[in-house]
């Protein structure tokens, strides 16, 4: 069901005096970028144009995003022209880059409002190549998972096998991604999460309908008449693929294939049939007060032969779990003095001197300035039963934070994940 954002938020305000709730809004964006560099304006794509209501979390999935086989062979460094562009825009709008993963041209980045990042824990990422020889990374899926308010969330961005007749290959790609991705901290796979969001160039086409009929039907505005021919819709109806997943109505024109630089369907010799190749699906385990607020394409972007697709969601969590590890708030810091960092851990949470605490720029958790080992033993136990720890960051380590501010991250070796994030703080020199 698609409902208006204003209706949901007004309803929430009316209920707040009655029940304690924890709500978040998500924006998902998928776009096959056709190996082009990012456009000069990505604000509309990201949903942060002037006057826009800012979502809590924004996940951006790209395919064919100027990756290369050579780059992929040397691993994912979270650094490319698209991500760099997004980081600048998102930072200026109050977001921090939580995580990014690249699998050749498949790129997934997740951003969180800086004010909400302390509610995040158990952050991990995975990728699966399903392309040439069944594993190469020209096709496949990349995922980022975490907990927010104690609930397990996962975003999957995938680029599946191309061409009209490769239905079975696309089904096999999805199964391979699901079967191979397991996460250490939560001991769960993709389908075990509370909220699963799957997006990408899924490459499903329209069967048993001539290209002329598709084009004329779209031109006449009778888009719903084409739903019956959509491969993915039929496969989901028979539970052949994405069992239990949902999708909003395809009320927008097919997003592929266009002449680059235009909004005209393919006029080349190949005459590719228009199709909804670019999709956003979701699945929720159990009861949930979650609603899809929007599902649409953005036709104004013309550099690719695909149109980007976005969807926004609202989730109202019925409860909130205590953070496994929490940093004490940090206020303004002087680079002339050492910084004592205090944090607490719930009983039963694995904490050891093999863990580490990183000092990061306040806009991204991709590259740390410096780090220290976590404390070996607690200094006390507080009234809530949480163990208290402290470590010291020497003043010499803080000078890099002078111009951009910094934030801390706690990484657990046992959980193989990022477990806690501090508030952002400034450093005065």
Question: How would you summarize what this structure contains?
Answer:
By secondary structure, the protein is α+β, with helices and mostly antiparallel strands.
Explain the layout of strands and helices:
Blueprint: H1 5-15, E1 22-32, H2 43-46, E2 57-63, H3 69-73, H4 81-92, E3 95-103, E4 106-113, E5 120-129, E6 140-148, E7 151-159, H5 167-180, E8 182-183, E9 188-189, E10 195-201, H6 211-219, H7 231-237, E11 278-284, E12 289-297, E13 309-317, E14 325-327, E15 333-334, E16 339-345, E17 356-361, E18 370-373, E19 380-381, E20 387-393, E21 406-412, E22 417-421, E23 427-428
Parallel strand pairs: 1-2, 7-10, 15-23
Antiparallel strand pairs: 1-13, 2-4, 3-4, 5-6, 6-7, 8-9, 10-11, 12-13, 14-16, 16-20, 17-18, 17-21, 19-20, 21-22
Could you describe the 3D structure shown?
The protein is of the alpha+beta class. The protein folds into 2 domains: 5-317, Deoxyribonuclease I, Chain A (4-Layer Sandwich); 325-428, Sandwich (Immunoglobulin-like). 14% of the residues lie in helices and 34% in strands. It has 7 helices and 23 strands. The strands form 6 sheets. A 6-stranded mixed β-sheet has the order 3-4-2-1-13-12, covered by helices on one side. The radius of gyration is 23 Å and the shape is elongated.
Helix content: 10-25%
CATH topology of the largest domain: Deoxyribonuclease I, Chain A
> What is the element string, with H for helices and E for strands?
HEHEHHEEEEEHEEEHHEEEEEEEEEEEEE
Number of helices: 7
Number of strands: 23
CATH architecture type of the largest domain:
4-Layer Sandwich
Mean pLDDT: 91
Low-confidence residue ranges: 10-19
The global form is: elongated
The share of residues in extended strands comes to: 25-35%
Strand-pairing-aware structural class: alpha+beta
Q: For the largest beta sheet, what order do the strands appear in spatially?
A: 3-4-2-1-13-12
How far apart the termini lie comes to 53 Å
């Amino acid at each position: 069901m698609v409902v208006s954002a204003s209706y949901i938020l007004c309803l929430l305000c009316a209920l707040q005096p009655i029940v304690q709730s924890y709500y978040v809004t998500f924006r998902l964006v998928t776009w096959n970028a056709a190996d082009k560099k990012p456009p000069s304006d990505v604000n509309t794509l990201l949903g942060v144009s002037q006057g826009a209501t800012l979502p809590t979390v924004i996940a951006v999935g790209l395919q064919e995003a100027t990756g290369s086989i050579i780059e992929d062979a040397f691993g994912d460094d979270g650094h490319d022209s698209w991500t760099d562009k997004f980081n600048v825009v998102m930072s200026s709008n109050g977001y921090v880059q939580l995580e990014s993963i690249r699998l050749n041209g498949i790129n997934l980045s997740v951003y969180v409002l800086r004010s909400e990042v302390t509610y995040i824990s158990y952050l991990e990422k995975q990728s699966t190549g399903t392309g040439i020889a069944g594993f190469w990374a020209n096709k496949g899926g990349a995922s980022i998972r975490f907990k927010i308010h104690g609930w397990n969330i996962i975003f999957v961005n995938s680029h599946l096998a191309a061409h009209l007749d490769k239905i079975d290959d696309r089904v096999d790609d999805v199964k391979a991604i699901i079967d191979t991705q397991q996460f250490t901290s939560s001991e769960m796979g993709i389908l075990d999460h509370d909220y699963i969001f799957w997006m990408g160039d899924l490459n499903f086409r329209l069967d048993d309908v001539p290209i002329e009929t598709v084009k004329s039907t779209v031109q006449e505005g009778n888009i719903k008449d084409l739903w019956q021919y959509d491969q993915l819709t039929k496969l989901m109806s028979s539970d052949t693929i994405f069992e239990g997943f949902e999708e909003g109505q395809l009320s927008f024109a097919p997003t592929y294939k266009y002449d680059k630089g235009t909004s005209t369907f393919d006029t080349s010799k190949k005459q590719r049939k228009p199709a909804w190749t670019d999709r956003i699906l979701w699945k929720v385990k159990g009861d949930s007060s979650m609603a899809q607020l929007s599902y649409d394409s953005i036709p104004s972007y013309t550099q690719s032969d695909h149109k980007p697709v976005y969807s926004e969601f609202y989730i109202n969590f019925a409860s909130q779990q205590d953070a496994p590890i929490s940093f004490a708030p940090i206020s303004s810091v002087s680079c002339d003095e050492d910084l004592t960092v205090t944090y607490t851990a719930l009983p039963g949470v694995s904490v050891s001197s093999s863990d580490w605490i990183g000092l990061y720029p306040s806009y991204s958790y991709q590259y740390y300035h410096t780090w220290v080992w976590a404390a070996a033993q607690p200094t006390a136990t507080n009234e809530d039963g949480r163990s208290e720890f402290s470590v010291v960051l020497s003043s010499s380590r803080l000078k890099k934070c002078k111009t951009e501010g910094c934030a801390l991250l706690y990484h657990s070796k046992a959980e193989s994940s990022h477990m806690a994030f501090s508030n952002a703080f400034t450093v005065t020199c």
